[in-house]
Structure formats: C-alpha cells, structure tokens
Amino acid sequence: MQFFFEVLIGGLLAGVMYSLVALGFVLIYKASGVFNFAQGAMVFFAALTFVGLQQKFALPFWAAFTCTLAVMIVLGILTERIVLRQLVNQPQISLFMATIGLAFFLEGFAQLIWGTAVRPLDIGVTNEPIQWVMERFDILVVKMDVVAALVAGVLVGVLAVFFNRTRIGRALRAVADDHQAALAVGIPLKQIWAIVWSVAGFVALVAGLMWGARGGVQFALTFTALKALPVLILGGFESIAGAIVGGLIIGASEKLAEVYLGPHVGGGIEGWFAYVMALLFLLVRPEGLFGEKHIDRV
Amino acid sequence: MFYREAGQFKSSYAADQQLFPILQDRIGVLAFLAFAFVGVPLVASNYWYTAILIPLLVFSLAALGLNILTGYAGQLSLGSAAFMAVGAVAAYNFQLRVPGMPVLVSFLLGGFMAALVGMAFGLPSLRIKGFYLAVATLAAQFFIPWLLVKVDWFSNYSASGVITAQRIEILGYAFDTPMKKYLLVLLLVVVLALLAKNMVRSRIGRAWMAVRDMDVAAEVIGIRMLHTKLTAFAVSSFYCGVAGALYAFAYLGTVQPEDFNLDLSFRILFMVIIGGVGSILGSFLGAAFITLLPIFLDVLLTDMARGFNLNLTPGTTSMAQLVVFGVLIIFFLIVEPHGLARLWQITKEKLRLWPFPY
Amino acid sequence: MKAWKTVLVAALAAACGSLAVAPAFAQEAGTQFIGITGYRVGPYGANGTAFFSGFIDYLTLANERDGGINGVKLSWEECETEYNNTKGVECYERLKTMSPTGPTAIHPMSTGITYSLIDKAPADKIPLITFGYGRTDAVDGRVFPWLFPLVSNYWDAATGIVKFIAEKEGGAEKLKGKKIVLLYHDSAYGKEPHPVLEAESAKLGFELKLIPVPHPGSEQQSQWLQIRQYKPDWVILWGWGIMNATALTTAQKVGFPREKMVGNWWAGSEVDTEAAEGAANGYYAASLNLAGKDYPVVQDVVKYVTGKGKSKTPDKLVGTVLWNRGLAAAMMTVEAVRTAQQKYGKKPLTGEQVRWGIENLNVDAKRLQQLGFGSMIPPIKVSCTDHSGSGLVRFQQWDGKQWIAVSDWMSGDRAMIRKMVEESAAKYAKEKNITPACLAG
C-alpha cells in the first residue's frame, strides 16, 4: 500500500509538470483558437535564454527572469505582428502549421544564439526526498516536485485572478467567447492576441525553469509538448482547470499503469498510455472533462 | 495561347469524363511521365536516385495517402508514419513467412494490413474531429512503433528489433540497382496516383468531400458516416502502408520501427499543407518541396559560408537552416495558404490568356 | 500580395534550376577526402558537437603537424544529419559524389543511420566504421565485410559491466542472488544488451530485471519508483541523450546511490553528468576511451590547432570523453589510410583500398605511444574474422568535475560473445543469402 501511494503521489506531482506545459496551450487556444504547437519550443527557448543570460552575464535569478520575460513578451508581440495577423480567417490547420514553422524557427534560433551544449539549471531547490515524510510514512516525496506543484498552483491562481478580475482578463474571455462580438464592442483583438501570446511566453518560461531544473536545459525540452497533449484532450482545450485536473489524472494513471501494468506487457508503455487513455475517454465524453459542450466536435 | 481548351468538343460521356479532359493536360502528363520513365534514367546519377528521387516518390505516396484523409475527407491525422511502419513490417513478414510470395503482392498486403490498423484507429473519428482527432491519432503514432519493437515476432526475433528487407525480385528479375528501384517505385506510385485521382471523383470520393464540407448535411442526404469515414481511413492508410513498404524495400533496406516517428508524420503533414490540401498534384509538389528544400538550403548556406569566407562555427549553418525553414513555412502559409497546387493553377490560368490577357 | 506570389513562383523556379546543378563542387585534387556525416543540432546535438569537433580537430592536426598522411593532404566535408536517417542517407550520397575517391570511410555516429547504410555501403564499396555502436554481429567480417564496429561493441560493454560489478562485489561467485536492473532506452539500441545479460544472469546466478524507459526519457519517475521498490544491488544505465541526465537526477531523488550505477559509453560523457549537476557524483561508466587533456596528442591539438585558431571547437570540449572519442575515431581512419598506403601507394585511396587498410589495421601499444594516445584507447588489431579488433572496456567514475579512470582495460566474456556473434551473423547471412567469406585485398 505504501508503494501504491508513493507511485500515486509521484504521478500526481509529475502530472503537475505536464499541466504547466498544457496551460500555455490552453491560454492561446482559448483566446485565438490556435493550436500552438510551438509551446514546447517556447519552453525550450525560454529556459535556454534564461540559463544563457544567467551564465553569460552572471545575472542573479530575478534579473535573468525579468530579462527573459521581456524577451518572451517581445516574442509574443512579434508573433502576433508577423504571423497571426497575416493569417486571420485562415483555416485552423494553417494556423497550426504556422506554429510548427514557428517551432522550427525558435529551435534553430535558440541554438544559434546559445549553442547546443546541455546546461544545468539551478533554482535553489534540491532534488532530494523530504526527510520527515520519508521517516513518518516511508513515502518518497521530492522537494523539487513539491515546489513545482506549488509554483503551478500559484501560477493558476495568478492566471485565474488575471482572467476574472482584471480588465484585460475580461477582454480575453470576451475574445475567447466570440471574436466578432468582441470586436464589435471595441476590444482591440490584435492587442489581446499579443497579450495572450506574451502570457503564454511567461507560462513557458516558468515551465522551462521547472523542467530544466529536473534534467538540464537541452533540446529535449521541446518534447515536453508531447506530454502535454493527452492532458489537453482529457481536460479540454479551453479549460485552465481542465489542464490542471487532466494533468493530475494523466500523471497518476500513467505512472500507476507503468508500474502495475507495464511489467506484464514488456514495459515502456508510458509513451502511449496517456494517449490511449485520452482516446478512450474521448469516445465516452468527446468534449473532454471541462470542455465546452456547445462546441461541435462530431 | 498554348493552354486553351477552346475548340475541344466532347461528343461522348466517356470523353467528358476522362481523367484529364483537356488535351494540353493529357499531353503534359504524358510528356512528364515519358520524361520520368525515360528521360530521368538517361541523365540521373546514383545520388539523384537514392538521395532524392526514391525518397521523394515514397513520401509523395505517403502524402497522397494523408491528403486523401485530410484533404478529401477532412479528418486530420498525425499517425501517418505509424501506418507506414505497419506496411513495412507487414510486407517484410509476408515475404519472410509465406514461401514464394511475390514482392508486389506483399507490398499490397502490407498496405491492406495498414488499412486494417488504420480503420481501427479511425473509429474515434465517429465521435471527435479536428485537433481532438489529431491528438487521438497520436495514440497510433506512439502505440504502433512500441508494439513493433516489443513483439519480437514482427522482426523475426532480431536482437535489436530491426528488420532487413528482402531483395526485390519480380518474375526472376532482380531490382538491385538504384535505377531499377526507382523505376519500380515510380511505376507503383504512378498507378496508385492515377487510381487516387479516379477515386476522388467517384461516388466514394464525392461522399468524402461531402463529409468534409459539412458532415450534418452529408448525413441528411443519406451518406453513411461510419462507412465513409472508415473507408477514408482505410484507403489513406493503405497508401501510407504501401509507401512504408517501399520505404523499407526500395529506399533504406534496413529499418527500425523508431524510424517511423512523429517527426516523419509531421513532415508528411507539411507536404500536404504546403502542396495543397485536397489536391493529388499537391501531394507531389509538397513532397518535392519538403524533401528538396532542406537539401537546397544546406548546399546553399554551406556554399555561401564558403564563398564569403565566413568563419562559422560548425553547425551554425544547420541551425540557420532550421530558422530559414521555419520562416519559409510561415511565409508560405501567409502568401499562399492553398499551397503549391494553387500556385500551379494560377500559373495555368495565366497561361490560358497569355500573351493577350485582355 | 500578388507581387509576393510572383516572387514565390520565380524563387521556386530558380531553386529548382540551381538544385539541378547543385552539389558537385569538387574537392581539392590530390587530397584524401573524408566525408563526415555529423550532427550538431537536434536532440543529440550536444553529443554530436563534441564528437565531431574532436574528429575534425584530429584531421586538422594531421594536416598541420604532419602535412597529411605521408604527404597526402586530407580534406573533408561535414554534412549535417540531425541524427535523422533520411538526412543521413542524403548526406552519405552527397559526400560520395564529392570526390573521385569517395568519402574514405563513414562514421555515422548513429545506430539508425548505420542500419540505413548497411545495404548501400557494400554496393558502393565504402567502409562504415561504427565506433562503439551499430550492429553487434558485424564483428564477423566474413558476413559484414564493409562494416567495422571498431574497438568494442555493446555486448562487450554489457559483459564488461557485469565483470566490473563482480569485481566490486568481490568476485563472480558473489553475484549469485544479487539483483541487477537494466534501465534501458526503449529502442533497438536499448534492446541490444538483453541477450548477453540474460545469458550472464543464467550463468552467474544474479537476478536481472529489465526496465524500459520510453523515448525521450525526460520523465522517469515510475521507473525509479519501481527500482526503489525492487531494491537492486546495481543499476546498469543504457541510455542516450537526456535520458541519462534524467536517470541520474531521478536516482538522486529516490535516494539510489550513484556509486551503484554503471552506464555504458553512451551514458558516460560530460554531456550527461554536467546536465545532472551534482546528481552524477560517484557514477561509473564503461568507456572506449578515457577523458583528459594530459595525452601528448591532446597537447598537440592545443598547440597546432585550437591554440592557433584553426578550429572552432569551444575550449570547454577539449579533453572531454566524446571529444577524445572523436580524436580516436579520426586517428583510426587516418591510420587505416596509412596502412592501405603501404599496399596501394601514397596517393588518395578509394573506399575499397581503405577497407583493406581497416581490415589490416594494427595499432599496438607502441604505436599508440608514438601517436600520443598513450592509454587513452586500447590497442587494436583488426582481422577479417574480428572486425572490432579489441573488445576491451575501461571504467571511469565521475568525481563531480571530471571522469577518472578506475579500472584497467578489461574484457568481458569474449568466448560467449564470439559464439553469439557468429550465430547472429549466420542468421543474417541466411536471411540475406550471403555466403560468408573474407574479401581479398
């Protein structure tokens, strides 16, 4: 039983990491209906820029964070200007492909500037088990994971306040609801998109820091996007709560499946289990956990 | 002036319904085919066969398969590479386990196996569509290569899970040089492409397009949703499967299931989008663009670095190449969202009036 | 917009036109041209950059210090494969056309690309040197005349690791009842050691548990919780790329001692340990070559190449495991050409001639000293029946700053490997209808 809880908790905490990446997808999809495949590349780009700045100019954590955030905001604005604005009214698939193009660009650009070397990232939290939980319950809970979960919680809280309480947030929700209507009441669509991409850049930066602290900042960070996709289907593309809950479910069930089911079928099922589970789930509930029902998907 | 159908009268249904109703098109296609079958072997080098033409044709076929599904039936899929893997492994196993099995038949059977698998993974399309379906097809993309690696039987118990395609021999004639392989692939691709062109204007093809354009309306006029969507998945996967078999047998020879990864699926999707969604010709143009562009950029950037005597860090050119590739894709989507096939169409329209456009 | 479209059509037409005349720029005549299929971008870009920097630095050294090989200057071209098979094949074909003598010998540095070239290389008469990867059964040169898995292969590594563990435990008999986990990358590469480890486990009586990590391996929580539950005595790490660093950090998380982890040589470079930061301290890895800057050849590279601005290698890479491996790989190509020159004369040689050179390569300890490699790599003597030439591995430990050698050159169970190699090669020969035979000069 102790082992079961250990796997469960580990899975839930890993799920939070997936949610962090999924959040970025949700933000952009909500506001502009774009399935942003470049989110993974943005995570990589943000983390690499952060570490690069930190190492090159010996900046303290917050200075590097602020600079990177500025870079991500500029990136968001440029993306809106150069890419999205030109593609208004194009079918979704074109926008999707454009974001893949963006992903290529970011991957190349990031490595062009900072090189391909793997860089360690230290955010001041050790990667060790929390002693007293270990002693009390003999369950392994890692500090880093807990910190990541807390950060994700704070992030969701901030986003929730941002969306629900601020003027921009309300405008964002209005745009998400109906572009035309939003335009009609005088919401500047283009600015809103730039903002949403900047916010997604911020989320990517946070995700990049958390993932980078786990295994170093390197190209493989772009693969984090793949972990986020099943979370998205499960949680629904438009729901922030869905991204979090979906992440928790995917994380926990994936780990439990790998540990309890894996050995019987040769292991390594984590790569696809989340997808198959999300697929089966969709057959029952096509709109996802928190997806909006009125959206026609069949 | 040259490209004008005025004066070409159709006096029978057969004439009106032929694949290429305009005389110039017919001549053009025939000339192009003649060039591909006769002209190319006269001039091409081994580099062209192995590095460019064979992969180009194989990817065209896969893109064609995806285009049938995405372009004609409107179902987005990110699992094409997995279906290619099924085709490759199935063809290998038919060759290995059935004595005296003709190679061509095993290619087709590989395609059929892929079609079966494709139908199984197409089932969710009855409930979901759009990006939800795309992500759902990723399940196939991750599950199938895993299964092929896990079950040793598929690779004939090779220690590393790698399959080595058998020699291609048809009626005692061995296709062993790059040129012969090229001709075989070309023949298969041409036949399958003409078949596809025919199919998309047939009853089934029109049903696909009806579903794509508005599924509710299609259902109302009596198109069977289940049947239509699943045939689209089956036909599409069949093409991908044959492409996979050709990839293994005519292109690489030895393949590991991991070769058929998500990157490849994305590349095939790129080909469809860049070439033109819902266009047979577009699949070929897209495949050509995506296959040739990186090579072209590579050669160009390396030459430029050399020409200007730039002292670049090695690898810079390849990263710059990635950047340029990304930018070009975005540029392309902005300038011509309907793909290369549309550009070709515009050119044709222009040609029709040229040189007196008014 | 309309203008843009015209530009687009024109650009496409121009591109098609220029491509038709594209990749035929000739190399300097009279040089030994070496084609390099490298990768510096993509998920394994960091590993590739280190290896190929070393490779090219050695070639530069051969030109700068010795004026080429017996007066025949070297020239080379690197083509980026991004660790992608399709691109690898294209690069291979392109490099082939760049010189009348072909690309000498290809180091694909990727198991996938090696497999893609297995059928092509013999047809083109170009030898492939796979330095510590690729097809293990290619050791049997009678079936794979054009494939040279030089130094050691995966099975050597696996049995070597078992032997190393046995030594640490105090003898092979002590392994009985011990528990060993193989944590492997779930791919063809990760499956390679299974048969030998299973055979070893049956022979020596240790319990073996195989735990796969799905690609890319950036998330290993469940695998390590399983390991924590299973409480093995040792973990063998068989990873590549980010999987290694993640394995080390996750091991730290679950509190598994790094001193009880042994990696193979693709899981034992600075790329892996530095990304894992402190988590790697104490970790062992089997290696084909030692790290360090104290070898005369490294000093020469610093003196003649990197110090003189003739190289673009970052200083940080000099003396690292993969960079040194690149030096060694280049040295073997150069020495093979030198060997072949004795037979075919001092001129640029073709792949067929170089193949003979590799098959008769003999770099003994004395020669290694002369070349300045000292004990960085084991002596190698290749023959038709043994295309690896050594089979030795050596273990290094990461002390937090650098890799320190902690064992001598040692070999695993060579007799068993030989038997399995021959079986596997014979099976391949049967499948492909090859009659095993040594190729004549």
Tell me about this structure:
- The complex is a heterotrimer of chains A (298), B (358) and C (441).
- With 298 residues, chain A is mostly helical.
- Chain A contains twelve helices and no strands.
- Chain B has 358 residues and is mostly helical.
- Chain B has helices spanning 13-16, 23-43, 46-72, 80-97, 103-122, 130-150, 178-200, 203-213, 215-220, 225-252, 262-275, 280-307, 316-335, 340-353, and strands at 163-164, 169-170, 173-174, 254-255.
- Chain B is globular, with a radius of gyration of 21 Å.
- Chain C is of the alpha/beta class.
- Chain C has helices at residues 2-20, 45-66, 85-96, 111-118, 120-124, 154-169, 188-191, 194-204, 221-230, 242-254, 270-275, 296-306, 321-344, 351-359, 365-371, 414-432, and strands at 32-38, 74-80, 128-129, 147-148, 179-185, 207-213, 234-238, 261-263, 284-287, 362-363, 380-381, 392-398, 403-405, 410-411.
- In chain C, α2 links the parallel β1 (32-38) and β2 (74-80).
- At the A-B interface, α4, α10 and α12 of A face α6, α11 and α13 of B.
Unreliable sequence segments of chain B: none
Largest sheet of chain B: 2 strands, antiparallel
> Helix- and strand-based class of chain A?
mainly alpha
Low-confidence stretches of chain A: none
What integer value in Å does the Rg of chain A equal? 19 Å
How much of the sequence of chain A is in beta strands? under 5%
What is the helix fraction of residues of chain B, given as a range?
Answer: over 70%
Shape of chain B: globular
Order of helices and strands of chain B: HHHHHHEEEHHHHEHHHH
Q: Whole-number average pLDDT of chain A?
A: 85
Number of helices of chain B: 14
List the total number of helices of chain A: 12
Work out the largest interface and the residue count of each chain: B-C, 54 and 63 residues
Oligomer: heterotrimer
Cα-to-Cα separation, first versus last residue of chain B: 12 Å
Averaged pLDDT of chain B? 88
Largest sheet properties of chain A: none
State the helical fraction of chain A.
over 70%
